[in-house]
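Justification of resources, computational component.

The compute hours requested in this renewal are based largely on the per-chain cost of generating structure records like the one below. Each record pairs the submitted sequence with a full structure-token output. That output is archived, and it is also reused by downstream analysis tasks.
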Amino acid sequence: MSVFAKVVESGSISAAAESLNLSKSVVSQHLKVLEDELGVGLLKRTTRRQTLTPAGQDFFEKCQQMNQLATQAWENARESQVSPKGHIHITAPHALMGTIVAPAVGKLVAQYPEIQPTLSANDQRVDLLQTGIDLAIRVGESPASNLKQRRIGQFRDVLCCAPHFKLGKNIELEKCLYVANSWQKQKVVHHFERISQNTVIPESISTTFTATRFTDSIYTALALIESGAGVGIVPEFIFREGAKKGTLKSAMVGYQLPQVTVYAMHAFNQTPPLLVKLCSDAIEEALQQESIYTKYL
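The structure output for this chain reads:
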């Protein structure tokens, strides 16, 4: 199959034989054996040119794919014996960068000091090619794009507030002051699932808030919420730390928000470089570790 592919790519048996360091007769014999085994002609040859038959065209495309996989397997095997090194530019939302991405990449750098990461926290979806970003971590619905993407985890946001924030029974939740992130609109709708004893009950409610405080940083939003400026959402792993310190409480006890999905994305045509894969796998593992501690809040 490799000989056949080389004949097509080279344009002639002679050129293929020279490239492969084989005799023309050996190359011709390879083609004859291949066509005999398949029971179909792959090439139409004249004294001046050669053309692929329809079956030959399809077979050639499959041979190219096979050669690409073999080349990638060879490169991966060689890379696995080499200590990872080099530059990598990673972007992620503010909510994940400091809590998940940076610690995961930091552990890799501690293990492989020649890795040189650039980490950019950004809640906007930037163009990876224009910005030179190697790996993007994104949250939410899978975007329609030409980027290669892989689902690497999930987490849940928690609607929360400061312990001293008034949430009396007679106060409608919709009337609470709402702290919004820059990616949210002024009208914010949350759909909650009801839970009881760690079990989801088939009953849900929707609540609409009017945002009156805005920020472009999850940590600024967190500071506003903890100070009593309003209610807002933060990822469960951030909420958990605030609850431990006594600076946050759930604003919807007995209800939870649906999980959101996290994707790792890159713009490489084929299998991404080893460094991109290593960082993606490390971030995925960190998300999985966080999910172990996920509880109904």
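The CA atoms of residues 34 and 240 lie 64 Å apart. The longest strand covers residues 199-215.
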